[in-house]
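Morning F.,

Quick status update on the modeling queue. The single chain you submitted on Monday has been processed. Sequence for confirmation:
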Amino acid sequence: MQDKLTLMIPGPTPVPETVLRAIGRHPIGHRSGEFQAIVRRTTDQLKWLHQTNGDVLVITGSGTAAMEAGIINTLSRGDKVLCGDNGKFGERWVKVAQAFGLDVEVIKAEWGQPLDPDAFRTALEADSAKAIKAVILTHSETSTGVINDLKTISSHVKAHGTALTLADCVTSLGATDVPMDAWGIDVIASGSQKGYMMPPGLSFVAISDRAWQAYERSDLPKFYLDLGPYRKTAAKDSNPFTPSVNLYFGLEAALEMMQAEGLEAIFTRHARHRAAAQAAMKAIGMPLFAAEGYGSPAITAVAPDGIDAEQLRKAVKTKFDILLAGGQDHLKGKVFRIGHLGFVCDRDVITAVAAIEATLQSLGLHRGTMGSGVAAATAALA
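Structure tokens below.
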């Protein structure tokens, strides 16, 4: 059946009809008073979502643009940074930092394992010269379904006194608690196609006062991603360049929906869906890839022993028009990932689990009792 695709991937995520209708409005002038009013309202909403009194700036670009902006606006060539790497996106930030001439010390963990906060603490405490200028890490590592302990790592950075915390919260913001001011995070990057329940195209950079002080010293090249002009124009409810006007319409609608639900309810919903997905996969004998206790609330990675994960994923797509995410790099064919991020409800999770079970049955690969996954998911949701 055409036009029935269900997205159960970590992005893009499903978009509510309310948001789609808002995006479908006729554009307005981006220098008009009407648009400035939208910028003003969404700025306040973004501060609410980030739990910050600081600046939250909007860039027409991807989450990678937001993360690169955070790096190039707070650091200078040759600065020493610690970069956490336990997945595809941790690897990406290492490459970005190296591309801009930073002195990168990598703190690694195996894919599927969380970053060790004590490794950061040890490195920071040994830095008596205060040479480390930033710690860069991914909160929810989308490639592996692992959530890192950002709160503890950020506390070690604060104790250092000089370094900044730059966090990729692309698949954690809007899915789990990330209180920027309370945790002392200096830069948070996120993207519209994740917990914001929107199509791709907008990215968001939240900046602390300490990060703005670092901005004054930064000498890395920047133009479109220079956050100074964004801050200056945001104070006037505007943007330094032509923004995606229609995505702003959607942003306001999405944030209104999120405010109506409330932060605690949003976080609880994502935690329930994580619990349901995990319980279901365990019930049908499908091992989880992320270390126990470190599963992301946005996505559950599954490592089906002895089963071609790509074959299973493609069969689910063909039979049920449900799109699951595959494994990346060396995990291709070994892992599939169930997204439960953003505009996802209990029905979506149960449907995805049932489709996986039915596909395993049709392929002769179901190793448990048929329906055990759905039963486990239902029990977890209850």
